[in-house]
Write a structure and sequence with these properties.
nine-stranded mixed beta sheet; 554 residues; 3 domains; 28% helix; globular; Rossmann fold; GMP Synthetase, Chain A, domain 3; 23% strand; Luciferase, domain 3; homodimer
Chain lengths: 554, 554
């Protein structure tokens, strides 16, 4: 279905009615007006707004933005944690036809300035705690006409060299609430995220209103949320539109909880609201769920989270993580897959009813580690290097290609990036994986992270998981590095659990791996490290690892 | 948002990717290939196809239709019960770009021929049991080039004057399964239903692929279905696209059960598959749920349907019906509202979490009788005769206006019907109702069914419900008929339960109504009848009632 569309018999439907994200919040305020948005503040207290109040603030924000000179098509950046003002920006900025540019607070100032300039950003909304980051780039970003400070404090209490500055709450207080929303073409950009790939400059994905609306419906359906649920926005809202849950939640009418600023050294305490707010659904990366689990493990009384579902993406959750959540709290980790380019939902892993009956517990846990089956609305195929589809046998690997209404069709103003798309419109994910007869996809590697050893492939991810299955290993990464004879050979980096330090040897790890891997695949080197280099999104940074160990086999 | 759309900043999304209903079944076959479609046959046995097999049959049907000469834009009628072939037609006909024309088997031959001719129908698929109906119109329908007989029998066993005829199963056997689906413009008509209003000729609503896809997502979300559910297709598939559940079910991946032909004199036995197939979700009208409840009432062992949700539309379910289902089986009747023109989902009645806490049981039951709050994606307003929105106070009545992607914007080739739409694109439902502060809508009457008595309005529906709350009354209808002094006055028609016959008087009914209605509103006449005249969709036929009793007050 990649050719030019052909028109059949005309319909009488209102097909000119435009999909628009603002309508989601309008709906939420209309049909779930008393539902709550809870946001944890800097001092630990919580702001509580109803949906109706949130919509009121969004209307004021929209009017205020117009007042300071923002308008149709302008790109407006946001530098913020997951809090209620970030959520308001999610609706207020696109509501007036401007573009919500989500800025990753973990980028280096150089990359951040690159993104701000590439998007020709007009205004930046910045949380008081992130002013230093904004200050670091302000001088390099000539298109930026002003900064709006997000704070509970008065403007006079804020010390900054940024100029000109506006005070978010004052703007809202002075704005009127009545608004006539523009009727936007649904293909207008709603917002943008830039990829944080490990190679090259960040690339811009500009999501249309149509894209966001259709994706949000899909998230709502696949996360199986109802208005009795309480959703906890763990995924940073600057990653892939916060995984679409800031929209899906308002379609469904759930109670919506935002963690606010958190300390990277104390991620565990992110677990506290699970109980205090009654969270039943969340989404995040294992990098967050792992420390939260440690926090829970140390509680005298384990929380009862029976029935809760935590969607997990970005990297594969370990078996231990999934089992321990379930055994300690009753919560289920639901593996899902996607990327910035896919808004992000592509696959979700639920055990199908018949497999629930047929599989043993061991087989079910094993299945839950796969990325899942494709959701409705998308075309997904796995192809070999000749672009031919591989058999759905759970063994034949290939690159995952994806097409559909919430998949990007290009990168904004990025010459040369056209090669990441096929002629019939699929996005090349760069992920290597398999599909089984039931449609479950298993990502094995990045295509470029497959280790090419003597003309054969070794899966670095398989080896990582197997290394992490060793009881002494807390975390492990595997990369292919140059080898004079075999082209590449794997090197294993392992972080040993404190209580096992000094008690485990490289030979122990290799012997452990030998149970699953052929002899020629085994690593020649296992390096014990204190931490594994990671990208800003918490993925292993293979580029850095390969650079650090490039000489190990030479 | 009714003006011409304006374009904002361009997005990079695949906005030219067309929404297409065929993709729903493709998805179902891919991600839920082993899920079941169960269809009850004429002899009571059941056919069981997997989703993958169903998709295989649909591909063969599409190829077969092309072979006999059907193609892009052709209207192809279906005269069938809810069975697996009807379901296959739901995907096979629109798949090739033809229009699925759903023919109401309860229409008079005159109305049916009108619809077939108005649509310029090229082929008709007809179930063997409905051949007499097809024969009754065949001579009057010159555009029809042939009939495809839906049967488990051989063609030689079918006696008919229809010509030319094709045998569905033979066509499928002879067709190949490989197919290249056309890439249809999403605004192409997927299918059509004709309204069965009580006034005027049937009017055609032609649903686009876009319309159907967006509506199906909404049904999936609002019915709160998961792949663990079993859906029972009670609503006739010739009504408003079967209420969108033949699409939503395949988005979600539920087990899907079709009742096949049923005897209008034995509707109760429709309850049997609830237990034998493990139904958890269904949708239908009180006219079906009522006899099913009687059937259940007579069972020695009541089925445990705890957690099951039965969406109920077309007319208001009585309090007794809802309570008895819940108390006898644990199943919940969920009131919903819509029309042929709205695909149909407009509102759904779920008790919001905070109301669940705040309301007493009596108040909750009372609330459940309302039609519910509007679903996401639609604009809904209630306006007085000056087109001004009425207050959301649960008291101020007005006409319900609806706009959105699954609302019709016109009637096909129906000059004069433009008055049923407002300038800013709302469809005038003709329903009178109120909205309360929580957004719950209560339909009180058809705008034209309000009884105008001495310059005031009396709600015929309120009076019907109150009459039916009398323990001796099984069913009751109220209509306004001409009165020399008061313009109109209400007349009550009541069907008395067998065990109460002869033991209740008109005065008893009026005394019962006096508890709720003002004296001037009380009916002057209560007529005991054996049955209430109904339309083909099971609604009270007020036109017939008014005609029968037009002289009662003269």
């Amino acid at each position: 279905m990649g050719s030019k569309p052909i028109m059949g018999f005309p319909a009488t439907s209102q097909d000119d009615y435009q999909l628009n994200v603002t309508r989601i919040l309008q709906h939420a305020a209309r049909s779930f007006g008393r539902q709550e948005v809870v946001s944890i503040k800097l001092d630990g207290s919580r702001s509580r707004f109803t949906y109706a109040q949130t919509y009121g603030r969004v209307k004021r924000l929209a009017n205020a933005l117009t007042t300071i000179g923002a308008g149709l098509g302008d790109r407006i950046g946001v530098l913020d944690w997951n809090d209620h003002r970030h959520l308001e920006a999610y609706y207020g900025i696109p509501g007036i036809g401007a573009v919500l540019l989500l800025l990753n607070i973990r980028l280096t100032p150089a990359d951040l300035a690159y993104v701000v300039n590439h998007a020709e950003t007009k205004f930046i909304l910045v949380d008081e705690t992130l002013i230093p980051l904004a200050e670091a780039i302000a001088g390099q970003c000539p298109t930026v006409k002003g900064f709006v400070i997000l704070t509970d404090k008065k403007l006079s209490e804020i010390n900054t060299k940024l100029s000109p500055i506006y005070h978010y709450e004052t703007l809202l207080n002075e704005a009127k609430e009545e608004i006539e929303w523009p009727n936007l073409d649904e293909r207008s950009a709603y917002g943008a995220c830039y990829t944080t790939g490990t190679t090259g400059r960040p690339k811009g994905v500009y999501y249309s209103h149509r894209n966001v609306c259709l994706h949000a419906m899909s998230i709502g359906t696949n996360a199986e949320m109802t208005s009795r649920d309480c959703y906890y926005q763990l995924v940073p809202m600057f990653h892939a539109l916060g995984w679409g849950t800031p929209h899906a939640a308002f379609i469904i009418g759930v109670k919506y909880v935002l963690p606010g600023m958190y300390n990277i050294m104390d991620l565990g305490s992110l677990a506290e609201p699970l109980v205090s707010e009654g969270v039943t659904v969340s989404a995040g990366a294992p990098a967050l769920f792992m420390p939260m689990l440690e926090y829970i493990r140390n509680l005298d009384k384990k929380p009862d989270l029976t029935g809760a579902r935590f969607l997990s993406g970005a990297s594969e959750p370990s078996l231990t993580l999934m089992k321990d959540y379930f055994n300690l709290t009753g919560a289920e980790i639901v593996h899902a897959y996607g990327a910035t380019e896919t808004t992000p939902l592509v696959t979700i892993n639920k055990i199908k009813p018949w497999l629930e009956k047929e599989l043993s517990d061991v087989e079910k846990w094993d299945l839950k580690r796969k990325q899942g089956y494709p959701v409705v609305g998308l075309d997904v195929k796995i192809v070999d290097h000749t672009e031919k589809e591989v058999p759905h046998d759970g063994k034949s690997p290939g690159e995952i290609l994806i097409r559909g209404p919430w998949i990007t069709g290009s990168y904004y103003n990025a010459p040369g990036s056209e090669t990441q798309f096929t002629k019939d419109g699929y996005w090349r994910s760069g992920d290597a994986g398999t599909m089984d007869a039931e449609g479950y996809i298993k990502i094995t590697d990045r295509v470029k992270d497959l280790i090419k050893s003597g003309g054969e492939w070794i899966s670095s991810v398989d080896m990582e998981n197997e290394t992490m299955a060793h009881p002494a290993v807390m975390e492990a990464a595997v990369a292919g590095v140059a080898h004079p004879k075999w082209e590449e050979r794997p090197v294993v980096l392992a972080v040993i659990r404190p209580e096992h330090k000094g008690k485990v040897t490289k030979e122990d790890i290799v012997a452990h791996l030998a149970k699953k891997f052929a002899k020629w695949q085994l690593p020649d080197e296992v390096v014990f490290v204190d931490a594994i280099p990671k990208t800003s999104v918490g993925k292993f940074d293979k580029k850095v690892i390969r650079a650090q160990y490039k000489d190990i086999y030479l």
